[in-house]
Amino acid sequence: MPVLGFLLFCCWAAFTEATYMKYKDPKQPVGARIKDLMDRMTLEEKIGQMVQIERAVATPDVMKKYFIGSVLSGGGSVPATKATPETWVNMVNELQKGALSNRLGIPMIYGIDAVHGHNNVYNATIFPHNIGLGVTRDPQLVKRIGEATALEVRATGIPYAFAPCIAVCRDPRWGRCYESYSEDHKIVQAMTEIIPGLQGDLPANSKNGIPFVAGKNKIAACAKHFVGDGGTTKGINENNTVISLSGLLNIHMPAYYDSIRKGVATVMVSYSSWNGEKMHANRALVTDFLKNKLKFRGFVISDWEGIDRITSPPHANYSYSVEAGVGAGIDMVMVPNYYTDFIDDLTSLVKNKIIPMSRIDDAVRRILRVKFVMGLFENPLADLSLANQLGSQEHRELAREAVRKSLVLLQNGKSGDKPLLPLPKKTTKILVAGSHADNLGYQCGGWTITWQGQGGNDLTIGTTVLKAIKNTVNPATQVVYNENPDANFVKSNKFSYAIVVVGEPPYAETAGDSMNLTISEPGPSTIKNVCEAVKCVVVVISGRPVVIQPYLSTIDALVAAWLPGTESQGIADVLFGDYGFTGKLARTWMKTAEQLPMNVGDPHYDPLFPFGFGLTTKPIKQN
Q1: Conformational region of residue 416, where left means phi above 0, alpha means psi within -120 to 50, and beta covers everything else
Q2: Residue 337 and residue 542: Cα distance in Å, rounded?
Q3: Hey, which residues does 266 pair with through a beta bridge?
Q4: 3-state secondary structure 461-484
Q5: pTM, 2 dp
Q6: pLDDT band at 621 (very low <50, low <70, confident <90, very high)
Q7: N or C: lower Cβ tally within 10 Å for the chain?
């Protein structure tokens, strides 16, 4: 063909290309759009879709050059300290424009850990962590929390959250136990109702296993961590879950059946191993079981550097890790930093026919399916229309309701005494004490603003327990706050009663693993100094049951408040009787750490407070 003719042919081809591309037509069935797009994609473009990189290493140029399919914010990874929704939206859109500038214009999907509300973002509503929500046994409440969280995540331009965690924590020594709703898989299964909250209700005619996200006010969810993350030996994070297949299927798997039935868009693989085999390399469970037997049609994502950790030490043989992880059936890899290594290794493995092209096509088909289903091709760029949803009063009221329903009253009056709770609002003088009484960061716990969480009151907007008490008591009641008073101070002040708020410091993941489960100092001495001198209620702020038995005899009333989040007004609502206590333990409360693991139904079951325990009170009218 002469040069001129060739150029004319190219122009004609480009023109027809511009006129109609089936994959860009929302009227076409999703399957036809996927096929049309994949037929046009090069190997390089396909592998790019499988890559998820950290915001810190992402630029519009990187998105374009490497055809990157996804970006994430790790815990605490933000565009600026106390960033506004506008700053978030602009950052996400800049990266998205880089992705869209490629010849095929495939949008990237931005993901973030929104595990108890939109927890990385300043001024977001922080809901109670899952351990508290399990106590409520209220799937509709959790669904409403999902709806609110979706709106707040979308307020910052983000369409995808790495939630919910549907781990069944079987040992509270695990540093992620607070991310688990219960030791009982039936409660965890009920709580998967958060998925239709996040993603929207599945249409009546949906086929099982097909992902579903209902448009611009909803987000893609992620059931995690597949599978057995909550069953590791001694609760050691990322460790080995030693259990039979029937145990795995009966305890750790059931919530995945519910999640898939509810149209969950993605599933994240666990760092942990099952009987010595790394889940990130377990083809039998990821491909044969999750994808083929359960008919899951969304995409499977790795955890952060999850494939690196297939080897010990991590990243020791990265090419092998890529081969094992992608070969096992992982579709999108949370690389997240050294993405060129991943791209080079995967490209070479495919070109050398070590990983078949069919495996790459399966991964890309699933990723594109989620992107098409959620409308990302039609609406790739975010706007500020939902900015007012972030930390809205309505969402804070919902969180406050969740706090009220998550509290468990473990003791109310020493034996033979009359109950101490509810407390009178009108009295002369009360003492509020303890390391956690006036500490917003402590009551939110890990995964709040930063990955590990942090102490203090400046991290975000919310109400501390002390502030909530002051808001609630009669104006004539004098509230004295002393974080760690000595015994003389308490004795000499003639308090009507005291509220002591103590517990654990914030932590996340491995940093939270604990073999002794103690209340952090000076908590025990505060309990001793206060409760030996005056009638006291102790409120425990913790990510799990802690050892409390040594102090019980001095305590009048004991409340488990878990990690309530920003809306501690819910604690005062119940302490002072505007609402009654209704919560029932969704975890066994042990006497000593040496008893662990100990779950309801075990032959050696001898708890301090059994699974399902919780005293109740009636609301009272008082001024």
Answers
A1: left
A2: 33
A3: 222, 299
A4: CCECHHHHHHHHCCCCCEEEECCC
A5: 0.96
A6: confident
A7: C
For residue 89, give both structure tokens: 């939206």
Sorted by sequence, the CB contacts under 8 Å of residue 273 that are 6+ apart come out as 239, 240, 241, 279
SS (H, E, C) 163-223: CCECCCCCCCCCCCHHHCCCCCHHHHHHHCCHHHHHHCCCCCCCCCCCCCCCCCCCCECEE
CA distance 77 to 72: 9
> Distance between CA atoms of 214 and 199, rounded to whole angstroms?
6
- Judge whether 403 and 567 are in contact, CB under 8 Å: yes
Distance CA(561)–CA(444), nearest Å, equals 11
- Give catalytic residues, as residue numbers: 303, 509
Q: Within 329-415, where are the H helices?
A: 339-351, 357-373, 393-406
DSSP type of residue 332: B
Tokens 């079951």 identify what position? 605
Q: In whole angstroms, what is the distance from residue 195 CA to residue 594 CA?
A: 36
* pLDDT of 336 above 50: yes
Q: Which residues contact 147 (CB under 8 A, 6 or more apart)?
A: 197, 198
**Edge-to-edge strand list for the sheet holding 160-161:** 160-161, 109-112, 70-73, 51-54, 333-334
pLDDT at residue 415 tops 90? no
Average pLDDT, the chain: 96
Its sign, for the CA torsion 477, 483, 487, 489, is negative
| Cα Rg of the chain, angstroms | 26
Burial of 562 (0-12, 13-18, 19+ CB in 10 A): buried
Check pLDDT > 50 for residue 273.
Answer: yes
Q: CA-CA distance, 68 to 369, in Å (whole number)? A: 16
Q: CB of 428 within 8 A of CB of 477?
A: yes
In the chain, what are the helix, strand and coil shares in percent, each to the nearest 5? 40, 10, 50
Residue 280 in contact with residue 325, Cβ under 8 Å?
A: yes
Looking at residue 390, the DSSP 8-state letter turns out to be: T
Centroid of chain to Cα 106: 28
CA terminus-to-terminus distance, the chain: 93
Please report which helix (H) or strand (E) contains residue 70, including its range.
strand 70-73
Regarding beta strands 557-562 and 536-541, do their DSSP bridges make them parallel or antiparallel, or are they unpaired? Answer: parallel
Say how far apart CA 330 and CA 225 lie, in whole Å: 13
* Consecutive H or E run containing 237: none
**pLDDT-based confidence at 538, cuts 50/70/90?**
very high
Q: Which amino acid is at 98?
A: G
Q: What is the 3 state secondary structure string of 486-520?
A: CHHHHHHCCCCEEEEEEECCCCCHHHHCCCCCCCC
